[in-house]
Amino acid sequence: MNREEISRLIAKDLLKIKAVFFRPDEPFTWASGIKSPVYCDNRLTLTAPEVRNDVEKAMAQVIAEEYPQVEVLMGTSTAGIAHAAITGHLMGLPMGYVRSGAKDHGRQNQIEGKLEPGRKVVVVEDLISTGGSVLEVVDVLRAAGAEVLGIASIFTYGMQKGLDRLAAAKVKNVSLTDFDTIAEEAAMEGYIRPEDVSRLIKFRNDPASEEWRN
């Protein structure tokens, strides 16, 4: 499949299992207090074998195409761990993961799995929003001497704050699908009204503003 076909397929899959769920007329409230028309939980892909198969095959293809020098996959904790493991298996690559903080016992590892300095790493993430958490993982890997080629994620909101943070850190991200594609597919499949798409894009462009609700 080409990249456009992958993006459409994964968008359809995520909508089908409600891993991405739009509710523009009854928005969800994030922990920050922001009213959001979208709910996202890509962990649901793990309990949907057909969708999981699509995701992992697409992830393996995209990583091979975008990061041909990759030597190790490192998942984010916790959502990226399973995807890094399955994709690593498909690609015949070693994998590990990065904890959100160092253990307070044993060897006090923050990086789990063998990672030698100089190894070329791709970080596997399920979702990119503002980019803060995944860039913390990149920082830990770089501090350990890894050469981080970039990130491979299932879905990105494409929020400007996230794009700016990734650019400032000189980190490439490649996502299987994105907010705009999923919004378009949701309208085409009848999950939302066609006129809702522009409202959703307004939210994506400025999540802190509630102008999209009007």
Structure description:
It is built from seven helices and ten strands. The protein has 214 residues and is an alpha/beta fold. Strand 2 and strand 3 form a beta hairpin. It is globular and about 50 Å long. The model has no long low-confidence stretch (mean pLDDT 93).
Produce the secondary structure layout.
Elements: H1 3-16, E1 20-22, E2 28-29, E3 35-36, E4 38-40, H2 49-66, E5 72-76, H3 81-91, E6 95-98, E7 111-112, E8 120-128, H4 132-143, E9 147-156, H5 160-168, E10 173-178, H6 179-188, H7 196-205
Parallel strand pairs: 5-6, 5-8, 8-9, 9-10
Antiparallel strand pairs: 1-4, 2-3, 6-7
List key phrases describing it.
214 residues, alpha/beta, six-stranded mixed sheet, 7 helices, 10 strands
Distance between the termini: 39 Å
The biggest sheet, with number of strands, parallel, antiparallel or mixed sense and barrel status, is: 6 strands, mixed
Structural class: alpha/beta
Inertia-based shape: globular
Tell me roughly what share of residues is in helical segments: 25-40%
Helix count, DSSP H or I runs of 4 or more residues = 7
Brief characterization of the structure:
This protein is an alpha/beta fold and 214 residues long.
